[in-house]
Amino acid sequence: MDSEMLARMLENIKTSLHSLLIIRHGYIVTEAYFYPFRQNDQHMLVCATKSFLSALTGIALNQGYIGDVGQRLLDFFPQRIAADNDSRKASITLGYLLANKSGLAGDDRAYFEMLQSNDWLQFALDLPISAEPGTRFNYFTINSYLLSAVLQAKIDQEVESFAQKNLLEPLGISDAYWGTDPDGRLIPTDLQLSTRDMAKLGYLYLHQGVWDGQQIVPAEWVAASTQAQPGTEGYGYQWWVWPFGYAAEGGWEQCIFVIPEQDMVVVSTGGLIGSMCADTALLIASDIIPAATSPEPLPENLQAAARLESLSEQLGQPPAPQPVPSLPATASALAGKTFLLEENALGWQAFALEFQEPEAQLTLLFNDQPQKLTIGLDNVYHITAVEQVAALHYGITLRGPVALKGVWQDETTFSATAQFLNGNVLGLRFGFDQDNVTVRVIDLLRVGFAPDQNISGTLQK
User: Fold this and answer.
1) N or C: fewer beta carbons within 10 Å in the chain?
2) Tens digits of per-residue pLDDT, 321-360?
3) How far is 292 from 71, CA to CA, in rounded Å?
């Protein structure tokens, strides 16, 4: 590939990418991480998780746990009675779930309602049906959740262990995080992997399900999954189909693109609001494929290669710190004080703030464990290595590490941005009024969709 063209691409990237990885002919050609994101951090895949779930379905079919994609959904749950008696529900098959043609009514708001219900599976089975199964495409995450439920119902072991043994470990992925529902079913939006580990699924599918000489996913399943099903707007079995290949896609640019003609895999992670993988696809079409100027090695261009490597390294470095604005009297008055918080969806119990330029320390009590987080006051994200600092949030676990920066808005209001290195980002605003505080939490990826949370607290006496 042409290093000069790839270097210009990195210079011109304006979207909110967190990482970009290009593999061709089995070699890493370009790998870039945009500060504060780093190579080994696990990133949320959001709906790109569904393509891993599809691979597990193919493996389960091959091992005989499931007969075929024509099996009916309700037959997997004979002990369950669906609330909606519409006869069309009985004709929903595994294949219709895979292709998002189940006919179940709903959108992602219904999925978020399911996450808050007492029985996720019953909620999903009780959904009304709005179309004859197989006749209408509706990209609906509950279809994917029901696939996970089928796997859990048929596999005689924890499906998380099945996934580890049959898919992740053979790919050399030993430390994946995959969230489960209260009954142990894999959540179809909560797989978290490093960018390199994401690329392994793409490389596996590029080679028809073979990894290191071992057939991990049946080749027939790879082919079937990555072909657009009729009437689906370019969707296979939990894979999106593009003119140049196919992709596992998640919101905000979590993407695994497979481009067979170029023997190429392109992976991105990001935080681009309102996007699935359109920006990464545009980058592939306009810059990455054109840079693949030959199927054979190009003549050495050491200067361009060094420039490409230098740019990649620069993107991973923090920006220059800025002078810290003068702190208000409230900042020093907070030292040694702890505020107790009312019950809230994030599971935060109490907090304390202390300020010492050029940073502040936020001590947050979560699950009865204090977590000490560093906040940059110099307009630079300061990174803290923590395991988890909040509960399941819209189908994704808010895990660490987390990078924070903050500023005093006025004498009584301190605002901070919490950029989780798994991709989530929250805006925090602490409003102090003598012995009381209000913590406003804004989901910056879901503005206009997720309501702000306003958590009240009082000074611990």
Assistant:
1) C
2) 999 999 999 999 999 999 999 999 999 999 999 999 999 9
3) 43
Residue where a domain terminates, one of 282, 312, 342: 312
| Nearest C-alpha neighbor of 400 from the set 47, 42, 16 | 42
Any residues with CB less than 8 A from the CB of 253 and at least 6 apart, and which? 15, 16, 17, 268, 269, 270, 271, 272, 275, 276, 277, 279, 280
pTM score: 0.97
Structure tokens at 332: 């020093």
Range of the domain at 244: 3-65+155-312
Amino acid at position 327, single letter: L
What own/partner pairs with CB < 8 Å and gap ≥ 24 does 113-118 have?
114/142, 114/145, 115/392, 115/394, 115/395
Whole-angstrom distance, CA of residue 439 vs CA of residue 430: 5
What are the pLDDT digits (tens) for 130-167? 999 999 999 999 999 999 999 999 997 889 999 999 99
Q: What's the total number of domains in the chain? A: 2
Q: Are 326 and 44 in contact (CB under 8 A)?
A: no
